[in-house]
Design brief:
Elements: H1 15-35, H2 42-62, E1 69-73, E2 78-81, E3 87-94, E4 100-104, E5 108-114, H3 116-125, E6 133-137, E7 146-152, E8 161-165, E9 169-173, E10 178-180, E11 184-187
Antiparallel strand pairs: 1-2, 1-11, 2-3, 3-4, 5-7, 6-9, 7-10, 8-9
Amino acid sequence: MENFKKVEKIKQFEAKDLSGICNKYYDAVDKIYEEVEGSRDYKKIRGRIEEYTVGYMQELLKSKEKFLNVFKTENGSLYFVVKSGQSLRFKKQETGNGDFETKINPIMDKIFFIDEGEVYEIMKEDKIELNEEKIIKIVKYGIGVRPFELNFYKDRSTKMEIVEIGSDNILVKGFAPYHIGHKITEIIK
């Protein structure tokens, strides 16, 4: 036993930690707005927020071991997932004038992964009806699959009930916000 080095167990982030991460981000962005109050130089304001956002993502990446999964998609979004399945996405989006900015999206309650065939099946129906049960085929986390996120975290006004989770599918019922992300191109953790 003398030759073995003691390995410290890293405390994983939980859903409440994601809420704290979001609150810290929103507080910092509010301060940026307060600092430039009255300014009409929106490009400069967006630039400062983008600079902060990118720096904040880099700080979170330094803590990647505290997340269950961290990955990027083909359009540049960065996802952080905790063990209980909640996810936080930093979305890269075009501003309309050719520039790009990164936005933090609401925490989603559960994340699964689906392939292109299942994306097609979900999209052809356009939505999942209110009291209809629907089987969603899920796949393992990996390159080329797409994130499928359900329900806004802590918002119970609309909720898709996860009736059952199997090894290769989930049975859901009800209508709620869901998001199908772009293909995963890089697994960070």
